[in-house]
Amino acid sequence: xxxxxxxxxxxxxxxxxxxxxxxxxxxxxxxxxxxxxxxxxxxxxxxxxxxxxxxxxxxxxxxxxxxxxxxxxxxxxxxxxxxxxxxxxxxxxxxxxxxxxxxxxxxxxxxxxxxxxxxxxxxxxxxxxxxxxxxxxxxxxxxxxxxxxxxxxxxxxxxxxxxxxxxxxxxxxxxxxxxxxxxxxxxxxxxxxxxxxxxxxxxxxxxxxxxxxxxxxxxxxxxxxxxxxxxxxxxxxxxxxxxxxxxxxxxxxxxxxxxxxxxxxxxxxxxxxxxxxxxxxxxxxxxxxxxxxxxxxxxxxxxxxxxxxxxxxxxxxxxxxxxxxxx
Amino acid sequence: xxxxxxxxxxxxxxxxxxxxxxxxxxxxxxxxxxxxxxxxxxxxxxxxxxxxxxxxxxxxxxxxxxxxxxxxxxxxxxxxxxxxxxxxxxxxxxxxxxxxxxxxxxxxxxxxxxxxxxxxxxxxxxxxxxxxxxxxxxxxxxxxxxxxxxxxxxxxxxxxxxxxxxxxxxxxxxxxxxxxxxxxxxxxxxxxxxxxxxxxxxxxxxxxxxxxxxxxxxxxxxxxxxxxxxxxxxxxxxxxxxxxxxxxxxxxxxxxxxxxxxxxxxxxxxxxxxxxxxxxxxxxxxxxxxxxxxxxxxxxxxxxxxxxxxxxxxxxxxxxxxxxxxxxxxxxxxxxxxxxxxxxxx
Lengths: 327, 346
Description:
The structure holds two protein chains of two kinds.
Chain A: E1 2-5, H1 6-20, E2 24-28, H2 44-48, E3 53-55, H3 60-73, E4 76-80, H4 91-98, H5 101-104, E5 114-119, H6 134-138, E6 144-146, H7 151-163, E7 168-173, E8 181-184, E9 197-200, E10 205-209, H8 213-226, E11 231-235, E12 238-240, H9 244-254, E13 257-264, H10 269-281, E14 290-294, H11 304-307, H12 311-323
Chain B: E1 7-8, H1 19-44, H2 58-67, E2 73-76, H3 83-86, H4 91-99, H5 131-146, E3 152-156, H6 164-176, E4 180-186, H7 200-203, E5 210-214, H8 218-233, E6 239-244, E7 252-255, E8 258-261, H9 272-282, H10 286-309, H11 328-345
């Protein structure tokens, strides 16, 4: 075990994958020679060579389109989109090509690529370095969507994603790239996709979150504990495949549910979770499901902290579901 | 990188090419023509979904296929996917795909002309134009690393040159110098897509050699693709081939024992099949050409009848092949559909 931050954990995962599987290639803008704008690929080109770890021109459609070609041929590409805000030129390739390659060919061709991309706000990046577009991709049949919240999970989930035979979007919460630290195994390991983690056990309210927001939920839960409220905080880790059983088991026990995400409220992934919970566990609910989310605005620069769901706003959501129906 | 002069592949139908090669090219072209006509008829009748006519591209597609090795990959758009027939896919399998039957290797997933043909190394087409060009560059990059002397061929029509994916594909190809051939079997309409008179001249801007070839001359296309593929195999990098073809939207009519493209005023168009048949007649092989037409029309008729008799795709396949294994969400949806269907049946 080694104490690592999330960037180091991701770097470790990539190095492990490159070492263990000759088919793995890692590429994107500034990924090779420079080692990545966040240093996620630091040292990899020196260790594995320019054929395995390389730079591309500034063209997201090209990064992903060529990755699809490589994957279809039999490689395991791990392309990087430098910021999730820039992923849209590749949207057609992701949605119309990668997601559909297996289905449309009756399984004759597959596209086992992993698209890594930093997402989320909190670094004073404004509109174009802060977006959380995970819901757009969760909505497309054929794509897996994974979001780690800890260094240990980042390495294990990324290794699982690379070994997965399907296209995976791997959203890395950049706000906690360095702030999140933890023990990470040195040896290869995997955290299965589709398995949520109970980050904190509790009886009074279920709190569902992923990525950086998970830590704000834990902060809110610690504060709530002082007031006698116990929160069952669940880190989803995978949005697709979704661990429905862990979510529903918790809600059936607590009867109250709060969903937290940075992404805008309308049609965010929280909406899907709320629909699922009320479809499968309505009789167990003591209160409407509350979503604590970013607003339906572009991500602001100056008012960034106002926009992000912080522990105080999450606590407001917890109180809301607990207070429902009370005199 | 020094700019490369644009080459012009000389036309010259026949020339020194052995007659048996021309006969073989013609036979495949006759098959493609018969298939295109039958597919158009099935679509007009509403038996199948939308079929985009590909008449006029037979020479370009046949010539390309004839130039390649079995290990090479082809990534076409839907109007060029009939190249799979030129690479050995059977008529029966082809019409099973058009009709969406269980015998379709793509399991009835895609609209007509979008099938995947792995045995022929033809990747499934998607409708958005040009996306396959970028894939071809990626396949080529992987091929270069595998070092088996393989070539990837991306095939598209005229409109693809206006897309963002065209720019990205040719730019990456020139930068990476991968073993890819990007071939445009372009009918009419280039003037409404771009200001240049050819697609080939655009290649200069990306450091890629651009070649103009007569797309109505299967043998010229064969030679141009063969030369480009060989250069790619030897590490010489990509080539863009610009093959001008007759307008694919021209209607077809039965003429004697063959099918001919016709202009709006009824006059015979510059039909690649007619051109080759003229050469074959000059070589005393006119009857063989007519027989080829008859043979292919009969084979297509048989294949349509066979495919029409095949069982439909089972409903349960709706939920397969989304992922390597179904997710809990898909399992739940499938279970719900199963319950609903069994209630309807009782």
